[in-house]
Amino acid sequence: MTGKASKSAHIAGTRKPAEPQVSITSKFWGRYRSMTVNNALPYQWRALNDEVPVDVPDGTAWGENGSQFSHSMRNLRIAAGREPGSFSGQPFQDTDVSKWLEAASYALGFAGENPDINIDELEQQVNEVVDLFADAQDKDGYIDTKFEIDLPADQRFRGLRWSHELYTMGHLIEAAVANWESTGSTKALNVARRAASCIDQHFGDGEGKVHGPDGHPEIELALARLYKATGERRWLDLAAWFIRVRGMDPEFFDEQDHAGGPQFYKDLHMPLSYFIMQKPVLDLDKAEGHAVRLLYMATAIAEVGQLLDDARMLAAAERLWTNIVRHRMYVTGNVGSCQIGESFSYDDDLPNDLGYGETCASVAMLFFGKALMETHPTGAVADVMELELFNGMLAGIQLDGTRYFYVNPLEADPAASNGNPTKAHVLTRRAGWFDCACCPANIVRLIASLDRYLYTVKGNTIYAHQYIANKTDFGNGLVIEQSQPGEGYPWSGDIEFQISNPEGLQRSLAVRIPAWSAKWTLDIDGRRTYVQPRDGFIAIDVSKPETHIKLVLDMSVRCLRASLNVKADAGKLAVARGPIVYCMEEVDNPHDLWTYSMPVNAQVSEHYDAKLLDGVEVLKFGGVRDVQENTGLYIAVDKPVERRAAELTMIPYYAWCNRTEGQMQVWVRETVR
Amino acid sequence: MTGKASKSAHIAGTRKPAEPQVSITSKFWGRYRSMTVNNALPYQWRALNDEVPVDVPDGTAWGENGSQFSHSMRNLRIAAGREPGSFSGQPFQDTDVSKWLEAASYALGFAGENPDINIDELEQQVNEVVDLFADAQDKDGYIDTKFEIDLPADQRFRGLRWSHELYTMGHLIEAAVANWESTGSTKALNVARRAASCIDQHFGDGEGKVHGPDGHPEIELALARLYKATGERRWLDLAAWFIRVRGMDPEFFDEQDHAGGPQFYKDLHMPLSYFIMQKPVLDLDKAEGHAVRLLYMATAIAEVGQLLDDARMLAAAERLWTNIVRHRMYVTGNVGSCQIGESFSYDDDLPNDLGYGETCASVAMLFFGKALMETHPTGAVADVMELELFNGMLAGIQLDGTRYFYVNPLEADPAASNGNPTKAHVLTRRAGWFDCACCPANIVRLIASLDRYLYTVKGNTIYAHQYIANKTDFGNGLVIEQSQPGEGYPWSGDIEFQISNPEGLQRSLAVRIPAWSAKWTLDIDGRRTYVQPRDGFIAIDVSKPETHIKLVLDMSVRCLRASLNVKADAGKLAVARGPIVYCMEEVDNPHDLWTYSMPVNAQVSEHYDAKLLDGVEVLKFGGVRDVQENTGLYIAVDKPVERRAAELTMIPYYAWCNRTEGQMQVWVRETVR
C-alpha cells in the first residue's frame, strides 16, 4: 500500500499551493473507480502482456506472425535488453503502456477510497513498468522502442509527420509525473526529465536543431505538466516553443521526407489540417482536423497560456472551445463528426449515424475544459465537462470495464454496420482491444484521475465543478464534504456540502448551477437563499467553522431540440434528465427504432431500477409508432401516416450496448399533435 | 447523310423478325436527341481528342505530364501506329471512344428525326474512329490499347481482376454492332468479329485456355448482341460460358496474380462480391457488389437466358431484378447506395445524402429492364424503365448535354460535400469530365438509342412500353403513331395512338397502364372502354386498317411514402407527378431545406413554365417551416416546434443543378396535422 506523496514537494522550487486531497465517495463513480482497478487495469495488463488474444473488431492481424497481440510490453522488454526480438505494432505502441502506467499510478493514490479496491498486484506491476522504461531509455534520454529497436539512431526526430516520437515521450512524461505524484518515487520522473532534456537538446530555432513539431500534439501538454510538477522553467518554455512553431512552416514534414527521414503510413495522405499544421496554430478559429490532435493541442494552448498569462494563447483556446461547443459537439458531448481522418468536419454537421465521436476526443475535451477552468472558471465549461463525464466519454467503456468503444455513434444499427461499409467504423459491440489501442487506457486514466476534475481554486474561491460526492482536504483544516443522499447523483439532484473550516480561513465555495437545471433551491445553514448565479456559479462564504449547504437541482426530464442549423436533428428531440442524456435501445423497444416518435410534452414515467445496468433511472414515454401495410418500397398515399400509441423506453446513453446487440438511437422524431 | 441498313440482313442466317423502324417525335425527348447530336457528342469528341482541358471535379491530374486530358483518341492513334507516344489514362480508356462511337452511330441512324440535327461532321468522325480501331487491332484480333502499347503480348488475359480487357473489347463489339446497324458498313463489325474470335480462342474449359471471366462484366452482353446481329451461334455459346463460369472459382484472380499476371490498382482491395465473383453468379439472390458490374451481368443473364430459353438464367435475372426494385432502389430509380465500391449495400438501406446512384447504373437498369421485357413484358418492369428514363438516368446529364453527374444523390448540400469528406463523392455541380469517364458516353448512348426502348414484339402482340411520342414502321404496312397533344408527356397525360394496318395483319397493341396512374380512361375509336390491365398492359386488337386509341393518364400530384423498413425516409414524403419525381432546390426555397415540411394533403398549385429549365411543370405546396430562436446548439423545449406557413417549390429531379449551386432534397418531412 502506497501513501500519497506530498504534492507540494517540488523538485525545484515550489510554485503552486498544495493540491487538495480528494477522496471520491460517490456511489456512481465509486463503482467505476473500483471497477477500474479491479477489472479494467488487470484486463489491460493482460492485453499489454499478450496474455489474452485481444479481440479486435475488424479482425486485423498485427504484431509478430500476424497475431492479434499488443506486443507493447514485449517491445519494452526488447528495448530494455531483457529479451531478443523485433518491434511489433504501431510506431506509438509504447503509449499503451504509458497510459496504463499513468492510470495505475493514479489508482495507487486513490486505493484508500474504497475497501473493495485491491492493489496488491498493481503496485508490483507499476514498479515493473517503471523499471522497464528506465532500462529501455537510451543514455541520451531518448526513449521510443520503435526507433530504438528498428531504426538507426540518426533517424530520430527526422520523420515527425507520423513517427509519433514526441507523442510517445509525452505520454511517458505524463505517466511519470502521475507516478511521482502518487508514489513519491522519483525513478519514473527522472526518466521523464531525461527524455524532456533530450527533446530540449534536439528541438528549437537554433542551428542544427529540428525546427518543427510532432505530427501528433501531446508533448506540449506533457511538458506543461512536467513544469507544474517540477517547477523547472525550461519545460514550460519548450512547451511554448512547440505551440508557437506549430503550423509556421507548412513544408516542415515534406522537408523531412525529402531529407530522407523515416516515413510511416505512406499510403495515408492526410491534409495538413489533419495534423493541425495548416496555419499557425494560434491563428486557428475553427476546430479542424483530427479531433484528438486538435484537442491535445488546444489543451496545451490553454495550459501554457494560463501559466504564461499569454493573451494570444488564451484567446486561441477560447475560440476553439467556443467553436466546438456551439457548432461541433453532439448532444452527448461527443466530438469529431467525420470518420475520414477521425476529424471535425464543418459547423453544425453532426450526422448521428456516421459520426466518429472518438472516446479519446471526449477524454480530451475534459483535459481541455479543466485547463480552461484554471484561467477562468465558468459554469458553461463545467457543464460541458459534466456532459462528457456522464455521457460522451463514459459510453466508451463497458460497465464491467473490459470492453471499449473507439467510436461513439448517436444512432447505431448492426445491419448498417455490417451491410454498408460507409458505416463499418460504427461498432455495435464494444471491442476487447484495437490495433490502434489509444482509447481503452485513455478512458481508464481519466476515471482514475477523476478526483482532479472536481475543484479549481482561484484566490480565496474554491469552485466545485462537479456533483460527484467526495471528501476533500484543502489543507489548514479546511475540509469540504459533498454528499448525495439516497441513490445519489446523477439519479437524484439533492446535494449537500458540509464545510469544516476550524481555522476560519477566508474562503468562498462556488457551487455550480448547471444550465440544465432551470429551477433549484439553495439552503445555507437551513435558510433558503435566493441569489442568481454569476458565470454559472453561486459563491457562498464558508469562512466560519462549519457551513452546511443544501442544493436541490431540477431533475425533471427534459426534451432537447437542436439548432435548426443541424440538418441531422431536424424534426427530432433528444431526452435528458439531470446530466444524463438518454437513448432508445432495440432490446427495450421491439420495433425498428426509426418508426417511433413522441411529442415534446409526452407523458413520462420514471423509475430507478437498481438491478438494470448496475442501476439506472429508466424513462418511459407515451409516444406513437408509425404503422403501414408492407405493400411495396414506395407507395402513393393520401392520408397522414397511421400511428399507434406506443411506449418508448429509454436508458442512459452511457449504458447502451451492455445487453443484446441491436439498434440504438438518441434522437427521436418529434410528433406534433 | 447515311441511310439505315436493313437490320434483317444478318451476316449469317436470319433469326429474328425485322426490327421496327422507330422515329421519335416526342417534344421532350426530341430536345434531348438533338442536344445529344448537336452538343453532347461534339463536346465529348473534343474531350476525347484532348481539345478541351476537361474539368475534373476533384482536380485529379492524370494523363501524360499530369495533364487533365482524356488521351483516349491519342492512345488509339499510337496503337494504330499513326503517332509515337505512350499510353495514358485508365486501363479501359478505349471504352470512352467505343461508347462515343456507339452513340454517334445511333445518331447517324436517327438524324432524320429532326431537321435541327446536324451530322455532317459526325459521319466523318465516326469513320475516323472505325478506321483507327481497325488499324489498332492486332492481327490475331486482340484489341486493347493499354496492353498493345504498354505490355508484352504474353501478359494478355493474365490479369483479369482489373485489366478490363474483355470489358474494353465488349464495348467495342457493342459499338461495332450499332455502327453496322446504322450505316450498313461491315468494317467495324468485322473488327468486332475478329476480337470476339480472339476471345473465343483464348477462353474456355479446354487445356491452355483461360478458365475465368473479366473482373468487369460486359463481354457477355456484347457477345449476345453480336450473336443477335450476326446469327453466329458461337458468340451466344461464348456468352453463356462466361455467365456459367462466373464465381465458380473464387481463386481465379488470385491464381492469375500468383502466376505473374499484370496487376492494376494494387492499392484497391475489393472483396470478390465487388466483382460479382463471390459465388456462382446464377445462384445469386441479392444484388450485391459493384452496381454496374452486377447490372451488366444481370442484363447478360436475362438476354442469354431468353435466347437459350434457360430457366436457371431467367430465374436468376428475375430474382436480382425483384431484389433491386423491392429493396435497393431509390424513389428516383437510382441504385447503388454505397460509395465504397460503388456498390449495393443491404436491403432497404437507401441513405439520401450518402447514396451513390451512379448514372451508369441507371443506364444499366434500362439495359436490364429491356432484356427482361424480351422474355416477359410486364408493366411493372416498364414502369421502372420509365422511372429511370425520366429521373434516375436523366439527372446524370446537364440540360445542355455538356456536363455530367457520376453520382446522383437524393439530398445534396454544398457545405456537406465540401466540408465532410464522407460526402465528397456527392458533387453539387455536374462535371465536365471524370478521370474514370464511364458515365458521360453511357448516358449519351442510351439517349441516342432511346428508340430501342419503346416496343417489344411478342408473337402478334406489340407492347408499347413508353409514352414517348413516335412514329414506327413495323413492316408490311403496319405503322403506329403515338402523339401527345399540347406540351405532351411527361407534362400531360393525354396520349393518342393512330394505328394504320392496311393489310389487316392480326395484331394487338398492348398499352401500358402505369402503376402510378390510379385512374385512367381509354377510348378506342371514340368509344370509352372499360377493361382491367393484365400484367400492367391492356391489349387492344388493331387488326383493322385504322384504329385510333386515346388514353388519358392521371397526372395528379402524388405523395409517396417509403416502406417503414427504409430508415432514411422515416417520417418523410416524396412527391411525384406522372412519371416525374420532384425535388426542392435552394434556389427556389430560401431557407435550409431540412427546415421545411408539408402534410400529405397539402394544397398544391401546378403550372407549366416553358422558360424554366427548358420547360418544366413546377409544383408549389402549402407547407410549413420550422422556426426557432438561435439560442444555442441544443435547447430544452417544452412546446412543440414552432412552425410558420411556407410555400415549398418543387421542380423535376432530373432538372436539378441547372441553375445556382445549392441544397437539394427529394424527401421532405411529413407534417401530421
Automatic annotation (TrEMBL), chains A, B:
Signal sequence annotation: none
UniProt-listed SUPFAM superfamilies: Six-hairpin glycosidases (SSF48208)
InterPro entries: 6-hairpin_glycosidase_sf, Beta-AFase-like, Beta-AFase-like_GH127_C, Beta-AFase-like_GH127_cat, Beta-AFase-like_GH127_middle
Residue span(s) of domain Non-reducing end beta-L-arabinofuranosidase-like GH127 middle: 461-555
Name of the molecule in the record: Beta-L-arabinofuranosidase
Superkingdom as given in the UniProt entry: Bacteria
GO biological process, one term: carbohydrate metabolic process
Sequence ranges assigned to domain Non-reducing end beta-L-arabinofuranosidase-like GH127 C-terminal in this UniProt record: 557-669
Limits of the Non-reducing end beta-L-arabinofuranosidase-like GH127 catalytic domain: 21-451
